[in-house]
Amino acid sequence: MRSRTSIKDEWREVRLFQNRVLLAVLLMFLMLLGLLVRLYWLQVERHPHYATLSEGNRVRIQTLAPNRGLIYDRNGILLAENVPNYQLELVPEQVQDIDETLQRLAEIIHLRPADIEQFEKLRRTKRRFEPVPLRYNLSDEEVARFAVHRQDFPGVDIEARLTRRYPLGQITAHVVGYTGAITERELAERDAARYSGTSQIGKTGVERSYEDRLHGYPGIQQVETNAQSRVLRVLDTTPPVPGSDITLNIDVRLQKAAYDALGDYKGAVVAIDPRNGEVLALVSKPSFNPNLFVQGIDARTFNELQSDARRPLFNRALAGTYPPGSTIKPLVALAGLHYGVVTSTHSTFCNGRFILPGNPRPYRDWKRTGHGPTTMRSAIAESCDVYFYELAVELGVDRIHEFLGWFDLGRVTGIDLPGENGGLLPSREWKQRARREPWYPGETVNLGIGQGFMLTTPLQLAQSTARLANRGRAFLPRVVRGVHDPLDPEMTALPPVALPDYTARGEWHWVHISQSMQDVMHGRTGTARAAARGTPYRIAGKTGTAQVFTLAAEQEYNAEEIAATLRDHALFVAFAPADDPQLVLAVVVENGGGGSSVAAPMARQIFDAWLLPQETVAP
Amino acid sequence: MNMNRNPSSPIAQLLRGLHLDLPLLAGLLALMGISMVVLWSAGGESSALLFRQGLRLAIALAGMLFIAQVSPHYLRMWTPWVYLAGVVLLLLVLVTGDIGKGAQRWLDLGFVRFQPSELMKLAVPMMVAWYLNDRPLPPRFADLLVAGLIVAIPAALIIEQPDLGTSLLVISGGAFAIFLAGLRWRWILGLFAMFAVAAPLAWHFMLHNYQKQRVLTFLNPESDPLNTGYHIIQSKIAIGSGGLFGKGWLNGTQSQLEFLPERHTDFIFAVIGEEFGLLGAALVLAVYAYVIARGLYMALQADKTYERIVAGSLTLTFFVYVFVNVGMVTGLLPVVGVPLPLISYGGTSMVTLLGGFGILMSIHSHRRFVSH
Predict the structure, then answer these.
(1) Are residues A367 and A392 in the same domain?
(2) CA nearest A238 in B: which residue?
(3) pLDDT band for position A616 (50/70/90)?
(4) What is the count of structural domains for chain A?
(5) Are residues A440 and A478 in the same domain?
(6) Could you tell me which of A119, A294, A451, B102 has the fewest CB atoms within 10 Å of its CB?
(7) Which ipTM value was assigned to this complex?
(8) Under an 8 A CB cutoff, do B239 and A39 touch?
(9) What pTM, to 2 d.p., does this model score?
(10) Which residues of B touch A15 (CB under 8 A)?
(11) Which of residues 107-146 of B touch A (CB under 8 A)?
């Protein structure tokens, strides 16, 4: 190709080159001229201005902290706000002897060792000319006392700043999370400049997962100071950009109902709208007061919270893993229909025990006398174990694993909150990898009733039940409804994110499972019929009881005889109204005893709060 | 300018024998002299600092002397290999490099730490010139695409490190090479027009509000409470308070009182502005202009396409150094880490800069017809 077009024309090329060089010279000349004009502007025109700045007086840079975005519930109720408070701050660069200054300060303002400790930690995250908070929440008296002695403390000053407050405290602590003093490590992972005016960062919950949007961008102020570093005048201000406000899907009314329903039990409730994945309530109990963390929690209180055996800081809704127990049975039944290993009319005789060939140990039903002839529908309604032992063995572990995987178990759901646990959906391959042992047939038997290795979080239970309620379609569970950028006039709503569908082999599968689950609540022999008595709407639910420890084959379980911490976990999953599901609930009560007696009544209370007209539930 | 018929002083003869160009060398040495004088003041009158800078200059000068001896014929022959090695080293840096301060730029060879992106400042324009050398010029579209790729690959790798300053210099080196090869006017204008149209479109339709905010902060560092905003404000006070004649050597209060950060490295021009005033700053710019003029003169004298393009683009890149640095110190341009060439303290760019001038001298002194 080259031979055709290109006899290189040396002269033409030289001329071209000369042309380009000429153009470059012209451009460079203009650019140099630009630099000279700029220098002339700075050094001649503006010389008096800059000369004054450089002589005697000094120019300092102050960062202006952006206001952190607010957090609202879906109806606009404030969940996290900013309240002003007086804080004592110290600029290290302007203080000659910090230790000595702190000693003198302690004489007029109460400084706890924890304050000093916190101050030293924060100091390492700041540049020398940035103020470091030393004490928060100064009383009016302290402010007045410092004002009198202000001239003795160059580089120390009182600032009115905004700090975070959570009006609902414990009730929303595990969803909203809290902010706390930023650590060196957190700063190293972020753009330090964005945090130069603040000392707070989201630590858990939405405060953490939406930190980037909530935080905003700091402004900057050039100020002229005198020799004592007091501000004389402001030269130039670039205002900070406030963080975005965040609106949650959480409904405070439902959240409160769930919080109250759990009472003094340890446990969690997750409420999801199955039609779009909106998380309407998320409660983990016991909870804690998030306001304690905002202004630097002192070591003793923190240690108490940390070492509390009831683990109030632990978010059970996302990270607590529990055997699903019998709540898994509707899904196992659906798997049986899906793979065609059982029909809806198939009946088995339950005599209270199940013998696995080649295994001497019988698997017992929770009802020692057995349920008699049992179909799928009555097996779910009465929570017959033997039926599901048989079904599980026929399905085999591989198909159960595959099917439950389609219902979002065994991996994180991807909710927009930090710290989610993925639970455990066992398989042959997992057993070989984790335990270096093959899968034993007996383990399949246990898997059929949600015992053994399998672990789920309350969130996962809610998510898989939402998919069941919505006939195979599911959405990413989401706590945040929308983000309101301060530069935008309107809130950016986050649309629901659909997950891959599961399509049933027959639409009647859904109807059959739903009816079976309605029998649990409304049937003559349903395990949770007591909890559903008198509802004007129909609930489809399933109770579950998860063993905390295993009984020997013939040993009798007696709740009163064993320590409270070894008592069974009570579980309950449900959706309502059954023919048009609007709310899915997963309730897990640690050491609650039985799912039907403890967890189901709680769910009833929460359903009532959501589905009944408000007047009827109002106290 | 005819050295053949003018066998002047023995010094001139010696320099010619060493393949050095006296006018260019004089300009470079003048800049180094200025560097020493200003560093004494900016570095707090530290002789250790001055000594280290002197040592670096000596090493870099030796490198220049060495390269000047290599005939441009060999330089051209080795170009693709040097370029290829550079790209491989860049990849290596990305994979294994020292993750120091969040950026991976260094390759630790045990005895010396080496920054492959520095090598690319020379290798990229050389490679473009090598590629276009025996293509018909002005380059056709397909050739332009290849040349663009030659620039884009290492540039992307360097941005990835991330090192904005160096990638900017590498891109300009390559872009100048393409431009000097005789990029057609319609292409030059077309590119300008495309940028002018695309930028506002992208601004309105493709960027979110918070992204726009980031771009704005980048374009206007003073709105940013980063250290860079602080640097710029202090640097402008230093320069502005210098006035017409300056506060005098060692008398710059901004720089002496340690208000000015990075005063002996990237912001050294502010010290010049403060202590020597507008006149001193203009004089320094004049020396730079002289060096650039001499470089372009040597490029015009070169007798092969490859040599012309290499000499021209290296000289123009040198101008970019000066313009970007002075522009940023005076608050005209955003802060990207580009040193004031040959004056800023620091050795990494010194070797490549003088290496580039070594190439220029080699090209100039190995001409077939030394004079016309």
Answers:
(1) yes
(2) B223
(3) very low
(4) 3
(5) yes
(6) B102
(7) 0.88
(8) yes
(9) 0.62
(10) none
(11) 134-138, 140
